[in-house]
Amino acid sequence: MTDLELNQRLADAEDRIQKLRRLLEAERELKRLEVRAFLNACPDVLGEIMSVVCAEFSITSYAVTSRSRKQPIVWPRMVFSYFARELTAQSTPAIACVLGQDHSAVIYAADRVRERMATDLEFKSRIESIGDKLREALKIVEFRPPPASAEWNQPWPDNKNRG
What we know:
The chain is mainly α and 163 residues long. The protein has helices spanning 3-41, 44-57, 61-64, 71-87, 92-99, 103-119, 121-138.
């Protein structure tokens, strides 16, 4: 193989690398836009949970929804899963769709957060703090049943008394 052929192959390889870099950057931008579009269109509760968790951990929503397995990204993702399960009626597949994961990953993440809260008091305190912020932001109050009244304690009317 001559030097001219080697140079041509090298130039072709560099062109392919540049195209792949542009494609990768376009893919990243598409992911950012998808996350932004989701947060604009998703139920307000999930968007608010994402915002509060991201702010607490100083991380972007793009990072939370990425495939990264680095600890500074994994734990906020797990915390999001935990609060999404605890504070919403969303199904695990719906929550997983937000994160680009499988529903079993959401179940596992929420379980891991509960396990760590049981053993790590500092982590538990931080999660409780996030929970308080979320409850305040979402205006969630503890459910209290209505007070018992004579009206609620009446027996069910029988069919004989119907007109």
